[in-house]
Design goal:
Length: 215
């Protein structure tokens, strides 16, 4: 459009140009050159402003896409049930303990996300993240008054991630430990007896297992 306008103006000037004498033609040429350079500068300015507006628009689009992605991520986190937490206790005394016995904390108090199975004593990780686990063991004194020791471990997929020893002769004792683990979906976490005296047994209520997703 601008090119057509300039061409029309130049054509009109050429018609007038042929009717002027040499001095008038020179003055008219000088005026036209000034006008042409002024018009060229204005067009360059408009071109630069358009380019800047285009860059600003691209940056705004990128920022909007980032905000939309962040919003989708947070919505997805809420939809996939990121709230994972459980706490369970041992309901009854366990008088006969064997090595590599998985402890079933069967009295469930909290089980957000339903990732803990009280019938197996196993927490099945529903989604990847960093988790905190805590377990406590009470070594009860049997009726004969002779105590013992109990060693337990927190295992992830069969690998020991934390250990605990509980026990003292003739005195009920409790001990506890905590671990922080980065888990993948499907990882299994549970508490297992690694060693125990023949006369030791685990007391009810005071023995618990809990965990939650940190982030």
């Amino acid at each position: 459009m601008a090119f057509l306008l300039i061409s029309t103006i130049l054509f009109s000037i050429s018609l007038v140009f042929g009717k002027l004498d040499a001095n008038e033609r020179e003055e008219l040429r000088a005026d036209n050159m000034k006008w042409f350079h002024s018009l060229e500068q204005e067009m360059n300015t408009i071109r630069m402003e358009n380019q800047k507006l285009r860059l600003d628009n691209e940056q705004l689009s990128d920022r909007l896409s980032t905000l939309e992605s962040a919003g989708s991520f947070h919505r997805l986190g809420r939809q996939t049930g990121s709230n994972v937490a459980f706490y369970a206790m041992i309901r009854q005394n366990i008088p006969h303990i064997t090595q590599r016995q998985t402890l079933h904390f069967d009295s469930v108090q909290t089980n957000d996300g339903n990732a803990y199975n009280p019938s197996t004593g196993t927490f099945m990780c529903p989604e990847a993240g960093t988790y905190v686990f805590h377990w406590s063991i009470n070594q009860a004194v049997p009726t004969n008054g002779i105590g013992g020791t109990i060693s337990t471990s927190l295992l992830r997929n069969g690998m020991i991630e934390g250990a605990l020893q509980t026990g003292d002769n003739n005195v009920p004792t409790s001990s506890s430990n905590s671990v922080i683990l980065h888990l993948h979906a499907g990882d299994r976490v549970y508490v297992q007896v690694t060693q125990a005296s023949s006369d030791a047994y685990i007391g009810q209520t005071y023995s618990g297992f809990s965990g939650f997703k940190l982030f």
